[in-house]
Amino acid sequence: MNPEEQQTWSYEEHFEELRNRLIICFLFLLLACAAGFFLTPPLLYGLKNLAPEGTQFFQIKPGELFFLHFRLSLLLALLLAGPFWGFQLFAFLDPGLKRSERNFGLLLLWLAPLLFFLGIAFCALLALRPMMSFLLDFPGFNLPYLQTDNLPLIAKSFNLEEFVNLAINSCLGFGFAFEIPLVLALLVLLGILETRTIFGHWRPVVLVIFVLSALLTPTPDVFNMLFLALGLGGVLAITLLILALFGK
């Protein structure tokens, strides 16, 4: 849209475009809900396989599995619809943006979902299984005084809903943590920070990474925090090196 066309738009036309885009977002959410409904069973199966061998799951309330399936379907729908909603918002605001604002908007539009899903993938593929093994199959279970006839005295049975909530919250924590390098990159591009300043104060940066990792992990154990701190530190280091190569 050129500036002349932009000036001829009335408030009614702007509200009409906003209404149309909201309708499109709602219809896409319905499609995402349908997709999430069919993707939830394999997701539950994959999460269940992360538990140590021999772990038994149970439900303690009627309808617990049904409501768990519903909440996971809605969560998957929101994850699928989020980037599309961001695109619709950017398309609505785009005619009134300057070139620099449009460039920042495109940067956010592509990198924010990419880093978020990268964080989820890092947690699901690398961190979640050893984390679950540490939390659910603690080495103390194998001590002789906790066994009878070579069988563990303490059975490993867990509530399915609590187990899934722990796994999902861990993945979401990793996803949000991986957005932090993008925030720093935007501050550098806006001239508020410089990469040499961040490199020069690397000790406080490392401390902040560990503090944020402790806050974003759903459990208080050090094992989970270390995994998140290593992943976040790696992505942040790569981001800063790329910015330094471009002279920022």
SSE blueprint:
Layout: H1 3-7, H2 11-48, E1 56-58, H3 64-93, H4 99-136, E2 147-148, E3 151-152, E4 157-159, H5 160-177, H6 180-189, H7 195-200, H8 202-216, H9 222-245
Parallel strand pairs: 1-4
Antiparallel strand pairs: 2-3
Helix pairs in contact: 2-3, 3-4, 4-5, 4-9, 6-9, 8-9
Question: Could you explain the architecture of this structure?
Answer:
The protein has 248 residues and is mainly α. 74% of the residues lie in helices and 4% in strands. The strands form two sheets. Strands 1-4 form a two-stranded parallel sheet. Strand 2 (147-148) and strand 3 form a beta hairpin.
Uncertain segments: 1-7
How does the helix and strand content classify structurally?
mainly alpha
Shape: flat
What is the succession of H and E elements? HHEHHEEEHHHHH
- Beta content comes to under 5%
Q: Between the first and last Cα atoms, what is the distance in angstroms?
A: 32 Å
How many DSSP-defined strands?
4
> How would you sum up the major sheet?
2 strands, parallel
Residue share in helix: over 70%
Q: Averaging pLDDT over every residue, what do you get?
A: 80
Strand order of the largest sheet: 1-4
Based on CA atoms alone, the radius of gyration comes out at 23 Å
Counted by DSSP, the helix tally is 9
Describe, in short, the structure shown.
The protein is mostly helical and 248 residues long. The chain has helices at residues 3-7, 11-48, 64-93, 99-136, 160-177, 180-189, 195-200, 202-216, 222-245, and strands at 56-58, 147-148, 151-152, 157-159.
